[in-house]
From TrEMBL:
Domain of life the protein comes from: Eukaryota
PANTHER family reported for this sequence: OLFACTORY RECEPTOR 56A3 (PTHR26450:SF40), OLFACTORY RECEPTOR 56B1-RELATED (PTHR26450)
Main localization (coarse): membrane
Source species taxonomy: Eukaryota, Metazoa, Chordata, Craniata, Vertebrata
Topology with respect to the bilayer: Multi-pass membrane protein
GO terms, biological process: cellular response to lipid
Segments crossing the lipid bilayer: 27-51, 63-91, 103-124, 144-166, 205-229, 241-264, 276-298
One Pfam family named in its UniProt record: 7tm_4
UniProt KW keywords: G-protein coupled receptor, Membrane, Olfaction, Receptor, Sensory transduction, Transducer, Transmembrane, Transmembrane helix
Name of the protein this chain belongs to: G-protein coupled receptors family 1 profile domain-containing protein
Start and end residues of each G-protein coupled receptors family 1 profile domain: 45-296
InterPro entries attached to this UniProt entry: GPCR_Rhodpsn, GPCR_Rhodpsn_7TM, Olfact_rcpt, OR51/52/56-like
Organism: Marmota monax (Woodchuck)
GO cellular component terms, semicolon-separated: plasma membrane
Amino acid sequence: MTAHQNDTDPSGISDFLLNCFVTSPGWQLWLSLPLSLLFLLAMGANAVLLITIRLEASLHEPMYYLLSLLSLLDIVLCLTVIPKVLAMFWFDLRLISFSACFLQMYIMNSFLAMESCTFIVMAFDRYIAICHPLRYPSIITDQFVIKAVIFIVARNVFLCMPIPILSARLYYCGRNVIENCICANMSVSRLSCDDVTLNRLYQFAAGWTLLGSDLILIFLSYILILRAVLKLKAEGAVAKALSTCSSHFILILFFSTILLVFVLTHVAKRKVSPDVPVLLNVLHHVIPAALNPIVYGLRTQEIKQGIQGLLKKGW
């Protein structure tokens, strides 16, 4: 299929064609069912968590507001990526407009960075709760959450904005087949006839500045938490302290492990199929989103009680 020509578009292209799993087309068949189930699970579980936190007065606390933000980010990321991927798998709807492609690119980059930044704030919340419990009510307030949300949105909206802008300003002279399931920055940029060095440099700098620094700060906070926990002398204090942050730590492992594997497969791309990073990129937008609310729902007594309370009211 050739590019759609558009006289008003200076790039000469008005549509892109997404071409998933070039070397392993059979992956689409077996991946479509688990992917659709994960998508439904992510949507349903996050919706239940949001409704529970919204309706249960006992959950109107800063920690649960941050969890609500995480659920909202997960929902947006899933809706941005997975329906289009499933439409390709089931109906071969591989065409995506020029503007929709760069909008998807922007949402993916900015919301992924927002999620990473939310984990930092949640790690800080757990650090204060365990290391400075007496000061927790005066530090982690509703005003703190509002300021944190403003920072999370502002930082990532503005720092991620150049990524799609740099790609959109390139001249696309004919090739329009993106060898990916999504409009990833470099998958799109490499189709242009221009020099993409600036795109590569900014993607690298933004990735390490945002996600890299976030992960370092998160794990630094947990080192401080672990050090403080080991100093606790009271009976059962260590177990109680660790249980308060275990759910959050599991979520971070979901988020960072898939991201780390994705980075490693890119580094070793000559030794693995080029479809592996594509697969990991898709799964990274749905697996954490599906598992995050389940982990918190199963491991947090207050949320379990809130869900049970809503079910009883419903009956």
